[in-house]
Amino acid sequence: MDNAIQLIGDDDGLAVIGRAADVERFLAAEGLTSKDLGPQRLTSFGSAGAAVAQAASEMAADSGRWVKLTPKSAQLVKKYGLRESSKTGLSTGVVKGRKGQVKGFVEFAKAPRSLLTNPAVLAYAARIMTQVAMQQTMDEITDYLAVIDAKVDDVLRAQKDAVLARMIGVGFVIEEAMTVREMRGGGDEVSWSKVQTAPAAIAETQAYALRQLDAIAEKMEKQTKIGDLAEAARDAETAVGEWLAVLARCFQLQDAVAVLELDRVGDTSPDELNGHRLGLKAARRDRLEHISRSTERLVARMNDAAGTANAKVLLHPSKSPAVVRSRNQVATGVHDFHVRLGIESGPRPSEVRRWAEAAAEARDKAIETGAKGLDTARSLGNETLDRAGSVTGRLSSGIAERTRRRRGAAEGHVDEG
Fold it and tell me: Can you tell me the distance from the alpha carbon of 334 to that of 339, in angstroms, rounded to the nearest whole number?
């Protein structure tokens, strides 16, 4: 299949396999960034049996790249009409090109050499894709921890719980196993024997960290006074960052164990590989859901606190903005954490409502109210003046009339005399 590109897609990304020049040309034409699957990964099927080993040897000259699932790469799957298998959950197809051009149409592979015609090889390819996706997340978490300068071990050491202390040792063992795997091009029995009990300690640590976040959310919810709310929000800034770092480390180690576990299942029970892979992905989604619920609940409580603070900013001009700033700090931290783990994040941070803005708003309302009152007073005043003028006129007329009568009477009296 000259100039053929074999495509395999799942819910994490897309594998692009073919001759190196064709793969690079295809990715460049589509404007996609990718990660090298590596020749060791493409040819590490030997332990799965003769048929798979033969297919792997035929692919030895091929290049493999992995593209993370994004709206753009997802559109590519739709563009080329890849077929999805209900059994494996994979979308597959072959893009054929002529004279070095990869475009035109998708043709589903029929050639013996195609990776897509061998179920065992396809299962192994899916395993590699899952492992590469998990390692991508692990790398992103490493970057995340470096950016926030999180001393996860310091947080764990500060706790008295023995389970949290064990997490440090578990991390060392898992990192060692991953280093050996990288050097060997795959897992081994000795490394697996060291890490197979690690998931229990990691899960307990994750549960503990989630409980800490829930406790922070509950504390925020119970505060009614702005002063107490500001103090709780300030404490939450540091504490939330620390526990998010612990959760990120837990997730990173859980992905590392899953990578080693897939190696182990592929070596010992190749027929169960695809089912085990799907099971691990489902468990991973459940962990993300637990984390998402807890962190979103926390942000919701912080949002409520910010709303309360904004409503009382005139009465508490220094503490109210502080609550909103703490909320924004926490929300930004949760958002960055979600991005690294692939969780869809919530709303953007609120803007701090400044005292001057609230005061200006109150002033404007007062002026508006005062203006209306002044107009009313003027109207009432004019009416009063009119009425007063009328009364004054009547009084003046009466006085003048009485004065005239008195004068007339006096003059008549003199005349008569």
Answer: 9
